[in-house]
Design a protein that fits this description.
Elements (H helix, E strand, L loop, with lengths): L5 H14 L4 H13 L7 H13 L12 H7 L5 H12 L10 H6 L13 H15 L9 H9 L7 H9 L7 H4 L5 H7 L1 H11 L5 H10 L4 H13 L6 H17 L4 H19 L5 H14 L6 H16 L1
Helix pairs in contact: 1-3, 3-5, 11-12, 12-14, 14-16, 15-16, 16-18, 17-18
Protein name: CCR4-NOT transcription complex subunit 11
Subcellular location: Cytoplasm; Nucleus
Keywords: Cytoplasm, Nucleus, RNA-mediated gene silencing, Transcription, Transcription regulation
Length: about 325
């Protein structure tokens, strides 16, 4: 076996299992036997072979799904320099680079191993240990992903790409301290730049300890189509409870935003969106006509020629008539 490469030894191991007609579960048992024999291995070459097989047997899976990952990580605290470097190759996924080397070559000249750093990266090791604990002990363990944190921090500064949005969509964002990564003064920009992300996290932010700051930031910035759609989404679809004071101020600002725009397509879109927004809140009983009738009536009279406003005016008139009756 001295002249066999790591991969040749691995293939011999697989061939032996096939001869014994081992099923996948029995293959795992055979790997467990190797694991149990690791400490008893007489030479470092044999120990490296065991590590190679335990990794290669599951190399087609994400590293955190390798059933022996916990063993690899714990070995870092009690192993030789070569073994530590070898485990580093496992953590970085570069172990395939030594497939055609023999164990003796590696032990004689460790410098031929690929350069690694992750076995020295305490943060990376800690995350992997958390993933192992989540898989084995507690599925409720929360693991914060640096990439997710970075994307959340950038969302108020630039539009995220489709792939970046997909990454965020697959993550359970409620596990993250969102108010740490999205500050109140950044929220209006995030809403305008990344509306779909805003749909997902706005209600979470408004349930944080910075609720009033986020609401004030929304009121302090110009009302946009994206802002109206986002507030509508959390009120109607997410059933987020917002104070009537905020809603009243927001509706007043929305109406005022229409008055401040120059006549044209942009203004028409804003008016239609505001009318649709107010009508939906009335229909959902989120606001009461008695508190808004004067404002709504004045808004409708000002923009009666724009499609969509007539429907709101009729709704307002009908509700006002019912109230008077």
């Amino acid at each position: 076996m001295e002249n066999l490469t790591f991969e040749e030894i691995h293939q011999q191991f697989l061939l032996q299992q096939q001869k014994q007609k081992q099923q996948q579960q029995q293959l795992f048992i055979s790997c467990c036997s190797l694991f149990l024999n690791f400490e008893c291995a007489k030479t470092e070459e044999n120990r490296l072979v065991i590590l190679y097989i335990l990794y290669s047997q599951y190399a087609n899976l994400p590293l955190e799904q390798n059933p022996f990952l916990d063993f690899f990580l714990n070995l870092l605290d009690n192993c030789t320099v070569i073994e530590r470097h070898f485990v580093g190759c496992i953590l970085e996924g570069t172990l395939s680079g030594i497939a055609n080397l023999t164990p003796q070559e590696v032990c004689t000249n460790p410098s031929i191993l690929p350069t690694t750093t992750k076995e020295k990266d305490n943060k990376h090791i800690a995350i992997l240990k958390l993933k192992v604990a989540k898989l084995i002990d507690d599925p409720n363990i929360v693991i914060l992903d640096d990439q997710i944190i970075q994307l959340l921090s950038m969302a108020g500064k630039r539009p995220l790409t489709l792939s970046e949005n997909e990454i965020l969509r697959k993550e359970k964002l409620s596990d993250y301290p969102l108010s740490t990564y999205v500050l109140p003064n950044e929220l209006p920009a995030l809403i305008n730049l990344n509306q779909f992300l805003a749909f997902d996290i706005l209600s979470l932010l408004l349930n944080s300890d910075k609720t009033e700051e986020y609401l004030q930031a929304i009121l302090d910035h110009p009302i946009t189509l994206q802002s109206i759609e986002s507030i509508h989404h959390i009120l109607v679809h997410k059933k987020t409870s917002l104070s009537q004071d905020f809603i009243h101020y927001y509706i007043s600002n929305s109406i005022r935003s229409c008055d401040q725009l120059e006549d044209g397509l942009i203004k028409d879109k804003q008016v239609k969106q505001v009318a649709k927004f107010i009508q939906s809140l009335l229909e959902q009983d989120i606001i009461s006509m008695t508190e808004y009738f004067v404002e709504i009536q004045a808004f409708c009279v000002s923009y009666m020629k724009i499609k969509g406003v007539v429907q709101l005016f009729r709704l307002a008139s009908n509700e006002a008539r019912q109230i008077n009756e």
